[in-house]
């Protein structure tokens, strides 16, 4: 698994196609774990953090959220404390999103491979995948919004699935089909307005059937 973006083309001709996925609120319902990790950070730093507000706007990099609660001179400290405590607090409470395992299974059945491209710290992202048995072929962390296109292009992904408008922007910059799931902070209408090519109203539970139709179509 690759814990960083590779700009070297990684096309693997053993596979017919590659699908990329976001992690938080796409493959993993990390809200309970992130809430617990922020609660621990608030206690450790004696800082007020509105936990409900934090988990209502997941997606952007950690430091962007921390700037809402800490002065700039304390961001590095808060970031390090959060990341260090996340394995203890963030992994066990966080289940797979409905349809996540079936989606990766459908990709394999059709001869494809799956990659995870996330803004999350790659070590903690890997812990989520291993804990839940989400067996993606590659993991690339620390990429957000348009920067996700670096990994999507490098791994020749033709589809990218995410819950955030930042995921839509990353897919479009990469020239990949932007498939959105309304399981995060945005509804279907907002995701379409942001440029999503496809919105799956049932989240990943709709993905296997959509993928089979997509691969069977004239451009499949």
How would you describe what is shown here?
It comes from Streptomyces hesseae. The structure is a single chain. With 220 residues, this protein is of the alpha/beta class. The chain has ten helices and six strands; from the N terminus they run E-H-H-H-H-H-E-H-E-H-E-H-E-H-E-H. It has helices at residues 31-45, 51-55, 62-66, 75-89, 100-109, 122-132, 148-154, 165-174, 188-193, 207-216, and strands at 18-21, 113-117, 138-140, 159-162, 177-180, 198-199. A six-stranded parallel β-sheet has the order 3-2-1-4-5-6, sandwiched between helices. Helix 8 (165-174) links the parallel strand 4 (159-162) and strand 5. The longest helix has 15 residues, at 31-45. Mean pLDDT is 94; it is low at 1-9.
Number of E strands: 6
Shape: globular
Please indicate the percent range of residues in DSSP E strands (runs of 2 or more): 5-15%
| Strand and helix order | EHHHHHEHEHEHEHEH
The N- and C-terminal alpha carbons lie at a distance of 27 Å
Pairing-aware structural class of the strands and helices? Answer: alpha/beta
- What percent of the residues sit in helical stretches (DSSP H or I)? 40-55%
Largest sheet: 6 strands, parallel
The overall pLDDT average reads: 94
Radius of gyration: 17 Å
Strand order of the largest sheet: 3-2-1-4-5-6
Short description:
This protein is α/β, with parallel strands linked by helices and 220 residues long. It is 43% helix and 10% strand.
Keywords:
220 residues, alpha/beta, 6-stranded parallel β-sheet, 10 helices, 6 strands, 10% strand, globular, disordered N terminus
């Amino acid at each position: 698994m690759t814990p960083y973006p590779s700009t070297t083309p990684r096309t693997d001709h053993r596979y017919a196609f590659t699908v990329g996925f976001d992690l938080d609120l796409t493959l993993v319902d990390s809200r309970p774990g992130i809430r617990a990790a922020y609660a621990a950070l608030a206690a450790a730093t004696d800082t007020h953090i509105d936990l409900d507000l934090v988990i209502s706007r997941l997606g952007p990099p950690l430091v962007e959220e921390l700037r809402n609660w800490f002065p700039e001179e304390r961001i590095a400290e808060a970031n390090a404390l959060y990341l260090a405590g996340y394995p203890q607090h963030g992994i066990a409470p966080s289940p797979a999103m409905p349809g996540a395992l079936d989606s990766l299974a459908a990709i394999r059945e059709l001869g494809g491979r799956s990659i995870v491209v996330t803004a999350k710290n790659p070590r903690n992202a890997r812990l989520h995948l291993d804990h839940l048995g989400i067996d993606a072929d590659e993991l690339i962390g620390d990429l957000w919004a348009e920067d996700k296109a670096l990994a999507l292009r490098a791994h020749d992904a033709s589809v990218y699935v995410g819950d955030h408008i930042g995921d839509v922007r990353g897919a479009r910059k990469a020239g990949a089909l932007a498939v959105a799931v309304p399981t995060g902070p945005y509804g279907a209408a907002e995701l379409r307005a942001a440029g999503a090519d496809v919105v799956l109203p049932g989240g990943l539970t709709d993905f296997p059937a959509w993928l089979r139709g997509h691969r069977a179509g004239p451009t499949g």
